[in-house]
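Entry 14. Ran structure prediction on the chain below.
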Amino acid sequence: MKYFIELPEVWITEFLDKDPDCSGYWISSLTQSWQKGYADNCTLPWTNYVDVVRRLKQHTDKPIMVDVDMLFNEPSVAATIAKELYDVGCNTIVVESKRFPKVNSLNPQSMVLSTPDEFCRLLNKVKMTVPELEVIARNEYLVTTKSVATTYDISKRAIRAGADGVVIHWGGNSETDLLKKTLTQLKEEGIKTGIIPTKYLNQVVNGEFEDKADFSILGNVCSSYIRHTFSHQTVQTLLTAPCMFEPILERVGSYEPKGQRTLIVLGAKPNEEGYVFLENPDRVTQFKAQLKHYYNIVLVVDINFKVKEEQSDRIHIARIEDSIGEVDSLMAARDYMNTEYITVVYADIEEKVFNYLLNQGLTFVSDVFAGVLNVKTDVLLSMLQKTDPSMSMLEMVSHNDLKVIFEK
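Output, structure tokens:
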């Protein structure tokens, strides 16, 4: 059985998105109203749900299912809301058979239901307006009629009207015999079925609905847990709790779109023995192997060096005549500094240093500069403008008081 887990807010994806038991997210009108300080009677603006879906879609690929209540019992309004939800990433909506204004299903004695005619006309207009959106009919008739036959017939009619499946809701108590009989009949017809087991969760845990329902909506489990946990706190207990801001800062940082990197290899001068590293195809291949980490690679060489031009549009040769220093060589690659981050590396780095190319700032190995600098491009360009072209990388960094250092 698939489990759709109630989403209090987008932050919960950090903990649930990799959980194999979380098949998708359920955006509940009850818990959304509770969290936002509204009554659970459709007074929370429906734009709230559009906003939550839009933000959630940026952080998950799991299906998103939205509790849309009865969509005000007005087919045109319902179709408009459904289309807006679909446009921002909603996969499924669950439409209730209640009459507006809403009464929560956990108070079945107070519910007023739509007629099957009204309910099915609304379902049809929604589905025909947004055919790509999965529309689930939430049938509340069983708890009010106690009739399996009536509930079954209305569910079949909802499918004929265009619904893709049916949730049979039972919120009165844990006596689920009628619910099980209804679901069994619908499954025999090949109809997709779902449940919201608020009052009989233990039966779901025990596997009693595995052959009767395709999915289970765990409607308020996260918000209930949050409320229960916080209900035991006071200002004094909060003052004694450790402040763990680092994980929050890390998570917030992860929301930023990942910037690309350019690898610039400085090889415009031979070493002390007159050896030109980038004339060696094996050394060039070592740098090319790093392309999986970079948007592009730039090899800076003297115009007289015999370095083969690359065919790839992501590997470039920047030639310079008689470079007077490392900063001068860097300037030769300026036209390729189009990404958010830059890695500058010497062509003659030691083999082990290839493992440190992505380390932030300057890399030192055993207190010796390893020939690697990682920096944001705007910072590098700012330093280049203020640095003598004859300077080395280390001198440039020292001159501009850049203090980020990685030691290995």
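The mean pLDDT is 93. Will compare against last week's run tomorrow.
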